[in-house]
Specification:
The protein is built from 10 helices and 8 strands. It is of the alpha/beta class. Helix 1 runs parallel beside helix 2, helix 4 packs across helix 6 and helix 6 packs across helix 7. The structure holds 1,3-dihydroxyacetonephosphate.
Amino acid sequence: MKTYIVGNWKMNLTVGESSIYLQKLLKRIRPAKGIEIAIAPSLVALQPLGVQLERAKSKIKLCTQNFYHRDFGAYTGEVSVTQLRGLADYAIIGHSERRYIFGETNKDLKQKVAAAIRNNITPILCIGETENERNFGETADILRDELFGALSEIDAEDIKKVIIAYEPVWAISSTKGAKLAAPDDIAESIKLIRSELKEIYGKEVSEETPILYGGSVNPNNAGAYLTIPGVNGLLIGGSSLISDHFVDIIDLAKRVRS
Ligand code: 13P
């Protein structure tokens, strides 16, 4: 299975800054077998970065941070995943910032996962418990609820097109005070997710669905997180905005794989 290194830039960098940043990455990143690198810039930067990547014949992929689940229509201000076809290969869905700041529900996410699959864009479905939920011992229930809330209509064939990202909400943005997740805690949650997948879709899907970890990943902890059993890559926020850090993490992924 591939190792996925995905940088989620969130609402950072102007179009010009994104392009300069990508130029730096293009100079420093060498393609490596088995490592899939994707960046999720702001929606407005997807098109120019797509052109830049094409010109450089780069294997770096683009990921959208958001989209609306309908394909076309009278939805002022929205961008559909249909409009992103050919531009983005991946789509982040269910990020906790969308759930908690923008009120996205399992019902919305179910429609988004279906729309991404319908449009041949790989959904990266984020799930994860808050600190309170963890403290009240509800982690397993939350993971199950978020997983199947979004996947309830996904059949045994389409589940093979889905990537899961485990992002405990309490571990996102440690630079702003969040805690760092311990590898053992992550391992336990990954095990839970795989056992839920097994129950619904069977052993093969449970073993072969890529599961990424996200939450304050940096070059100091990326090696440890990448070696957690069942982790197939990283979804990186803050550190993906620092080109040296992002490149270091990619290099670590290459070393862990070799
Ligand atoms: P940080 O790496 O900044 O904690 O963000 C993680 C995240 O939310 C990635 O989607």
